Amino acid sequence: MALLTWYWGLDGILVLLSLIFSAYLYMTRNFKYWEKQGVFELQPTAFVGNFKDCLLFRRSAGEFLKDLYDKGKGLKYLGFYVFDKPALLIRDPVIIKNVLIKDFNYFSDRFVAASDTDTLGTANLFSIKNPHWRILRNKLTPVFSSGKLKKMFYLMAAVAEDLDTHLETLNLHGKGRVIELKETCAKYTTDVVGSCAYGLQVNSLNNPEAEFRKFGRKVFTFNYRRALELSTFFFVPGIVKPLGFKFFEQSCSDFLRKALWGAIDDRMKSGDCRNDLIDTLIELKKAQAESDEKDPDAFIFDGDNLVAQAAVFFTAGFETSSTAMSFSMYELALQPNLQRRLRDEISSALDESGGKLSYDMVMNLPYLDMVVKETLRKYPPLPFLDRVAMVDYKVPGTDFVIEKGTPTYIPMFGLHYDPEYFPEPFKYDPERFNEENKQNRASCIYMPFGDGPHNCIGLRFGLLQAKLGLVKILSKYEVTPCERTLIPMRLDPKALILSSDGGLYLNVRKI
């Protein structure tokens, strides 16, 4: 006789069924949370909640949240579940403005989190928590002032010349040839970030085996494992440590440590001053070491805490701008009349300047600005924002309280494609961003760089390098669709940063 019945096999089946039933009860214990709060909730499925399509990589994270946004049409917010965790999606621009700006102190941290043993993941400006975030943000903001960028422009212009040289070597005369433009743009932006932030000649454009490009490519290679890791950081950070996930893959972390400390050592030995990120990090390290104030809870400007800043600026700096550049050329290739209009504007500006590029010229081309803004509407690199309620927060004008610890998501991808705000949202139309339309648009509807105190610190830098690259390419080359061009565009369901599925191929021909 077995323990429960006459047969061991039957005992095993009963135990297994009991375990499954217990797991079911545990994983559904929070379901109806939103209903009890008086909030519309999407019907969840046991064990996965509403997260199934994202978990199985049927939809990218941005598309997943956009789908939720579309299902909540007419609502100010709605509840959903990531596995068993209740999460809130905000649709209403007024409430979004409260969360991001007006009542920022209630939502001053992102929900994204790394393991406390992963210093590069926890200490970087993107994911670090308060009060260290506020200190770090204030210290690093001056690096990206317009004055500093004007001083950096000659470094960017030198890389733009390298881009021009690289394209010349590809023999694009006559009918031209097919190029995977995302990779070309990523090489250019990698070299810009390497020069402007690290003070290094990275040389990705001329050397296919350049280490910075090799490891940059590795960070954003969205295989299933890497996609699972990054999704976990943003949606279920509680399981990051048990699973051993890292914000940066180990070999990338080792390379970035080596590159940063090599750059710092060289700079300190030479005494050169470039007014860049490396100089700022050195100054912060020295100032803290010389200070008489020794706060045990202070953010330490040394070791991996410094590497984390350089790492996140490198990875975010090259990837987001190369995404904006390549998607801009994709859309312009599909609408030659828009491409011609932009080229005419660029050519006129170059004629007036005698062919010389300058910061003011690049940043004051109105149609180029409209083109880039429309690209960022259709393809915001990070297509959602995440916040977490620091304390209980009563939504103004309602009885609804967002409880402390609730993950709160703002789907820019959904807002950017809402026909209420952007008629014919799938149409690429730079005129949406002419002066009249910009003035008539409410706040917190268009947010490719986020909004409020937590917005992207490097947005000016990113826009400048993207615009400069577009000026350099489109002044001399025409881009057109080819057999490998995705029409319509299909996004990679594994990519957290918006990316085309299988590359972005266009025919490039020298004019």
From TrEMBL:
**What does the record give under GO molecular function?**
heme binding; iron ion binding; monooxygenase activity; oxidoreductase activity, acting on paired donors, with incorporation or reduction of molecular oxygen
| Topology term for the membrane | Peripheral membrane protein
What's one Pfam family here? p450
KW Nucleotidyltransferase (keyword) present: no
Q: What is its main location?
A: endoplasmic reticulum
State its cofactor: heme
Its Gene Ontology cellular component terms are: endoplasmic reticulum membrane
User: Which residues are involved in binding heme?
Assistant: 456
Keywords assigned by UniProt, alphabetized: Endoplasmic reticulum, Heme, Iron, Membrane, Metal-binding, Microsome, Monooxygenase, Oxidoreductase, Transmembrane, Transmembrane helix
Q: Where located?
A: Endoplasmic reticulum membrane; Microsome membrane
The residue ranges crossing the membrane are 6-27
Q: Does the keyword Transmembrane apply?
A: yes
Q: Which family does it belong to?
A: Belongs to the cytochrome P450 family.
Name of the molecule in the record:
Cytochrome P450 6k1
Native organism is Neodiprion lecontei
